[in-house]
Amino acid sequence: MSVFTNSYIPVNKYTRPGLKLQGVKKCVLHYTANPGAGADNHRRYFSNAQVYASAHIFVDKTEAICIIPLNEVAYHANDIQQRDSAGNPYRGVAALKPNANFLSIGVEMCLEKDGSFHSDTVERTEDVFVELCNKFGLDPIDDIVRHYDITHKNCPAPWVSNSQKFVDFKNRVKAKMSGKSVSKASPTKPTTSSSSSSSTASGSLKSKVNGLRFYSKPSWEDKDVVGTVNKGIGFPTVVEKVKVGSAYQYKVKNSKGATYYITASDKYVDVTGSVKTSSSAPKTTSTSSSSSSIKSVGKIKIVGVSSAAIVMDKPDRNSSKNIGTVKLGSTISISGSVKGKNNSKGYWEVIYNGKRGYISGQFGSKI
Ligand SMILES: [Zn+2]
């Protein structure tokens, strides 16, 4: 299944000239320079914009949309930013001469409102490039280039000012193509965590092995696996130890506060700091609020995402917080659906760890 959805804009002289590509020598990374606007915002914009500009694929934190067929030209990488002493435009990638737009695919990363790349946007963009490199027989290290590399345009600006991030990105694409799992969990900080231990549980966790699975809820089942962490990688916060079946798991949080579960066996993980053991059974009842159990009206299956759908705290994908993820192909109970904001497909109201959450409509199929 493709990482991106095809939703082509109409052929028009400005944004989709309908010309055939002469080949795909490179894939070009861009950023939209347009904070807060997602992939679908750009699809709609380019469907009737009267500017000679576009790109093939737009990626945001919830989806990737291909707006121009991959055998057609998009105007994304042949602009003139600099000229040499003879008056010729700067062209830094020889393989794309004389016109990069006829020889490459353009991929745009969307920006959050604060101008940053969401980690899910970066991860999804990696998956897009994995698919493109496989499709066109390209090597991510040599054949993913920045717009900057071709014309010296400051694009994608955050990875022009910090080229190492672009190198790291290509390496992750390469690793994914070779079948290694790549963790986006943030590494733990050096463990001199202040000795002033608060009364609540505190600790951080590191995996001792590669490919250690973590789960969306207290469970050992395959269907609840969210991802894996490699040796030395882990979670900055360990909340507590809970009994799951006959063994224990740590309830952990990532740097964004999303909760997961991972084995508590010291064979596999190192924990620093103090961690309390939950006295109660591992039923995830919410701590403070009254235990209003939300009534389920059915279930959805997660579809159309590369690895997992994001669960949001409110039905607005532009301003919500992520409270967790649900893996592709797994099911989750719903209490209804709502129109919400910023998504023409609306939102499923899901029951996530006993609490209400929201998943974009296009990523759930009623079962
Ligand atoms: Zn660009």
What is the gist of this entry?
The protein is of the alpha+beta class and 367 residues long.
What does this structure look like?
The protein folds into 3 domains: about 5-175, Lysozyme-like; about 205-275, SH3 type barrels (Roll); about 300-365, SH3 Domains (SH3 type barrels, Roll), CATH 2.30.30. It is globular, with a radius of gyration of 23 Å. It has about 375 residues and is an alpha+beta fold. β11 (about 235-245) and β12 form a beta hairpin. Strands 1-4-3-5-2-6 form a 6-stranded mixed beta sheet, sandwiched between helices. It has 6 helices and 22 strands. Zinc ion (ZN) binds near residues 30, 147, 153 and 155.
By CATH, the topology of the largest domain is Lysozyme-like
Q: Cofactors and ligands present?
A: zinc ion
How would you spell out the order of helices and strands?
Answer: EEHEEEHHEHHHEEEEEEEEEEEEEEEE
Helix content: 10-25%
Query: End-to-end distance, in Å?
Result: 20 Å
Question: Which blocks of ≥5 consecutive residues have pLDDT under 50?
Answer: 185-201, 281-292
Reported for the largest beta sheet, the result is: 6 strands, mixed
For the biggest β-sheet, the strand order reads: 1-4-3-5-2-6
What integer is the average pLDDT?
Answer: 86
Which architecture of the largest domain does the CATH hierarchy give at level 2? 3-Layer(aba) Sandwich
Q: Over the alpha carbons, how many angstroms does the gyration radius reach?
A: 23 Å
- The CATH class of the largest domain is identified as Alpha Beta
CATH superfamily of the largest domain: Peptidoglycan recognition protein-like
Number of helices: 6
Q: Write down how many β-strands occur, each being a DSSP E stretch of 2 or more residues.
A: 22
Structural class: alpha+beta
